[in-house]
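Quick question, first post here. What does this chain look like in 3D?
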Amino acid sequence: MPAATPLSAILEQALRAATADQVEATYTGNVEAATRFANNTITQNVSRHCATLAVRVAFGRRVGRASVTDLSAESVRECVARAEALARASGEDTEFLPLPGPQSYPVVQGHDPAVAQATPETRAAGIRSALAAAREAGVTAAGSFTTTVSRFAVANNAGLYHEQPLTDTQFVLTAITADSSGWAQQSGFRLSDLDPSACAATAIRKAVAGREPHTVPPGEYTLVLEPAATMDFFGFLGYALDAKAAHEGRSAFSGLEGTRIGVPGIRLFTQPDYPVAPVLPLAEDGLPLPTTTWIADGVLETLAYSRYWSSQSGHTFTGRPANLILAGGDRSTEDLIRSVPRGILVTRFWYIRFVDPMKLLLTGMTRDGLFWIEDGEIRHGLKNMRFNESPLRSLHHITARGPEKRGGRYSPTCMPSLCVEDFRFTSGTAF
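> Answer (accepted):
Ran it through. Tokens below.
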């Protein structure tokens, strides 16, 4: 299908080709470009263009789905035919609800033409300044500069239609010495959100300061979590919010709705038009994604209600958290460090896995910048540590919050640096 073809025309082809009672067509398109570097040299530039049409049809409650990446008229008709054949051969989906009609959506400003127009030369210019700083500091740098342009559209035969463009860009750099490493990341939907030189300076400073790392024994420590570490750890709250699972006794949140699960002042929420972390303003079946506060002043105000579970429980529809924002405080990260008599500064975590989903108990390791704090000052680097800890437990041990920062591996997340007491490290690592 030519690029100039309106998305509405592509979706309309699918709707016209269908004979089912209910039809939904969704277009998802991405242009992802990345310039990568390693050993202080640009090594690769890649670009991937991907467009997918997904069709869902229903005869009564018999539902079928199919998708294609070839958007020619013939391929679209074949996709609809496959979806209808699957629906006719399927049993009833007892959770299927009639598709909604036209909806009103919040206005999301999440597209930057500068990201859409970025070239390999644009990304290389930012990388060159970072690599020059790495060479001057005597460290080895590796990382990437990525730009992504997304287009999304959905239509159904009940009259619903919405189209949304979004952009995303990220710069990440790891600086490495013989016995230490430092890491920094910047992300946003605007190209101007990134400053590769400043990002590189942070990673380099951590790598240099972490040389000749010490060890500390396993135990409970007061931590200062930088925003990336906060997102890595507390981001698991968003995965566990499903109301149906909680009500059926299959979740760490079972029985906790409406109760205090954290210290006063903690607010966790989803807002599709959040200025620094905008996301698609629609949820399942094309319903508008509402702004939802999950934790208010430390109390679990609501869980995530799907359209089906909302209809069964009588609770307001929330959808799932497309972005997750933990409100920050009025103290800088440096202030948090100065407030700690003895503790540990964590740049980020990695390789986090579940130990016990029913307790939201996680295990993982620190990475790329772990430092000992004493009398409010960073004294030296530390060898990395493994933890066994639950975000649910740690919500009760937050003593201070710093400024929010955007990040996240899979979707926009915005969280602050935190001071967390009694965090459990179970062992050290060899590096």
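The mean pLDDT is 96.
The first strand starts at residue 22 and ends at 38.
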